[in-house]
Write a structure and sequence with these properties.
This protein is an alpha/beta fold. Helix content is 45%, strand content 16%. Bound molecules: nicotinamide-adenine-dinucleotide, L-histidinol and zinc ion (ZN).
Amino acid sequence: MKIIQLNDRVSLRRNIEEGNEQQLNSVLDILSQVKKEGDDALVSLTEKFDRVKLASLKVTKEEIEHAYKQLDEEIISYIKEAAVNIKAFHERQTRQSWFSTSDDGTMLGQKVTPLDSVGVYVPGGKAAYPSSVLMNVLPAKVAGVERIVMVSPPSKDGTLPPGVLVAANEVGVDEIYKVGGAQAVGALAYGTESIQAVDKIVGPGNIYVALAKREVFGLVDIDMIAGPSEIVVLADGNANPAYIAADLLSQAEHDELASAVLVTTSQALAEKVSEEVDRQLEQLPRKDIAGASIENFGAVYVAGSMEEAVQAVNQLAPEHLEIMVEDPMALLGKIKHAGAIFLGPNSSEPVGDYFAGPNHVLPTNGTARFSSPLSVDDFIKKSSVISYSKTAIEQNGRKIAALARLEGLEAHARAVEARLEDKEND
Ligand SMILES: NC(=O)c1ccc[n+]([C@@H]2O[C@H](COP(=O)([O-])OP(=O)(O)OC[C@H]3O[C@@H](n4cnc5c(N)ncnc54)[C@H](O)[C@@H]3O)[C@@H](O)[C@H]2O)c1
Ligand SMILES: N[C@H](CO)Cc1c[nH]c[nH+]1
Ligand SMILES: [Zn+2]
């Protein structure tokens, strides 16, 4: 792993979310096929990209029952326990409608309503992600979304992985379809004969999924464009190099484009972690992927002071930040930009990926500067409520009419004045 003396130009930005021209053209072509040909396009595109000819897109009850038989009781119980933790965390995020009344009889408020329908994309190319089913569906459930549709690309035998199906069934997904990539996003946005369109599409995916989500945004809402995983570890000289190397590799194994970075005040620790990464990498089953990620987007930065190190972390604004210093709580207040912050030696990043409760769908590529983890807020919307009394309109009607005329909007002014002049308005 490269060891670099820190200067002020650290960045995780990888300019990958734009895609190249060929990828964008391919996505536009796929979306237009789905719009024109509906289910026929979904079947032929699945044959082309996933190499499977589907007899039907919808997952049946029998397929879900079969999935339960393929998994050990023990792992099913862990999926259930993770779901309990994730649900409990997200229940603390719920918002209530509120209304307030003033002496003149005015009532103002904010009405909170869950979205009617949501489509959840679960990636299925390089790995199966039952954890992403829980993380995307549970906040929608807690928000009260009525219809939750899941899509995921089928494996070569035309099925979805058992863990994905069991997780979906455990958290109450209403409909599951075996379709992935840009074509799945198109189906959720435009609707086809079998898949009714939804109001919002959430969930991570590869570049084709990301570009398709960006393209249909406006017709439907989207959560974010979640890019490849990122981890930054902030450590002092006393941190455990083996733990740090293991945690860096945990994210590197996601993707050749994932990034894993250590920022430390200790040259000695930098050297030990670099050696540990090389040693542990050799023992990993996905060492090709993790190795490419470490080679291209891995780095160890050595800072002159903890202050300088914290500044670098805020500049990186990583998806995941682990703080491995003597007193991590003392540094927490100084961290401004990070999707999820893991404190102390036992809070390894995968604790958050699977089990603790907070969401693992997080802002990437520096977007933690202005955005937040997926949450219940992503699945609700707010309507403002205004109720003016006779007293309130009499006291304020002329002011409102004047403000309308300032904008040259006579009809606005007259609409309000109609109430003031109406003798029957008692
Ligand atoms: N941020 C998170 O929370 C999170 C969680 C899990 C996974 N991920 C990320 O999601 C991504 C998953 O990517 P993936 O590829 O494994 O699965 P995916 O399901 O996103 O993509 C697979 C689909 O891509 C389409 N595709 C493949 N090649 C294509 C081509 N040449 N032209 C058009 N379409 C094509 C196919 O339809 C295929 O079904 C990874 O980057 C992973 O790191 C992120
Ligand atoms: N670390 C990923 C988000 O960057 C989420 C995940 C799913 N499974 C394992 N990890
Ligand atoms: Zn992960």
